[in-house]
Amino acid sequence: MEDKSGQERFLDTSVARSLLLGTQVYKQYFESQFADQPLYISNYVLLEIKRSYLINLISFYFVLHLETINNIGDAIALWSNRFKTSELKAILQLIPQLFSTHQLNFSSDQDKEKALSILAIYIKRFELILRRKFNNTTIDSTACARALVPLNVDLKNPAEGLKQFASEFGDVKTCRSKCQIDQFLLTQYRTEIEQLVEIASQLPKNTNTRGFINIANNLKEILATGATACDCKRCEKIGDAVIALDAPRQMQLEHTDSSFDYLCPQINQPHYKHPSENRIVINVSIDNSES
User: Fold this and answer.
1) How many CB atoms lie within 10 A of CB 76?
2) Could you tell me whether strands 252-255 and 135-136 are parallel, antiparallel, or unpaired per DSSP bridges?
3) CA dist 82 → 73, 75, 85, 87 (Å)
4) Cα–Cα dist 274/227, whole Å
5) 218-256 as b/e, with b when 16 or more CB fall inside 10 Å?
6) Among 127, 119, 124, which Cα is nearest to 61's?
7) Which residues are 253's β-sheet partners?
8) Could you give the CA distance from residue 237 to residue 219 in angstroms, rounded to a whole number?
9) 213 near 258, Cβ under 8 Å?
10) Are the beta carbons of 231 and 179 closer than 8 angstroms?
11) pTM of the predicted protein model
12) E strand segments, 55-210
């Protein structure tokens, strides 16, 4: 779909996260696209960034905090062996931004304590930037309780506040008891979801459609099973659908994921798909080599 100039921009998680954590070239691409326009996200997008990045930073903090871990290098080694790809990615995005900037020695026992202090400051600062960099639509028809878990960190004793946040954010049973994802999916947008499931059933499964079809299969399970199928783990699998359905229709949804190419037209949500980070970085490199 063509970009409509002058239309307010609502960012999917992929774009919001790239503006915060992408390569310099990718950040510059988005900054040129948005040209100082106000950018909007929702509580649900905040949730996804907290879940995919912030909570992993906190987990890494406590790995580094272990008495049996003597230095930054050991913490990274343990993390890379222990955790799945998405969690490893979060820390790989962190290291060049943080530890290298402060010229910490990854083999030094003494620099472990410096790293813990720097990491706590970064976590607190990142959460603050996340809330202040973008405008919040204040629209959240799911009433996601996890998105509202506060991060209160006293830098004199950061472990306590970080542990409290991780505990409350991870208490998916309590958070689910407070949210309205079942009404959102099974009542408010039931007709739209039935149509999305039907569309997916007619599509061939390939690289472009795979994400959308996986989302539709989870939506189909929710329709068949009811509210008991609506938990935080399932919600994570259908995040793009939740974001698309709850996006303000007067705004353009900015994204990089192909699933929105199938989600948005059906619900009359204006949208624009941006090139991937790899494509932008490679194209800039080619342009520079030819100039």
Assistant:
1) 20
2) unpaired
3) 14, 10, 10, 10
4) 34
5) bbbebeeeeeebbbbebbeebbbbbbbbbbeeebbbbbb
6) 119
7) 10, 271
8) 9
9) no
10) no
11) 0.90
12) 135-136
Amino acid 95: pLDDT: 73
Q: Whole-angstrom Cα distance, residue 167 to residue 171? A: 6
What's the rounded Cα separation, in Å, for the pair 160 and 82?
Answer: 24
Question: What type of residue is 192?
Answer: E
Q: What is the mean pLDDT of each run of 10 residues along the chain (291 residues)?
A: 67 95 92 92 96 92 94 87 70 70 81 91 93 92 95 95 97 96 97 97 94 97 96 95 96 97 96 95 73 55
Question: Are the C-beta atoms of residues 119 and 61 closer than 8 Å to each other?
Answer: yes
Q: What is the distance between the alpha carbons of residues 6 and 223, in angstroms, rounded to a whole number?
A: 38
Quote the tokens at residue 276: 């991937």
**Distance of alpha carbon 135 from alpha carbon 138, whole angstroms:** 9
Determine how many CB atoms are found less than 10 A away from the CB of residue 44.
23
Strands (E), the chain: 9-11, 39-41, 135-136, 252-255, 271-273
The rounded distance, in Å, linking the Cα atoms of 132 and 119 is: 20
Per-residue tokens: 277: 């980070």
Which pair of tokens denotes residue 50? 């907290």
* pLDDT value of position 291: 55
Q: Residue 112 to residues 39, 87, 90, 98, 133: CA-CA distances in angstroms?
A: 37, 21, 19, 13, 30
Closest CA to 152 of 168, 173, 172, 135: 168
Q: For residue 58, what are its two tokens? A: 């906190």
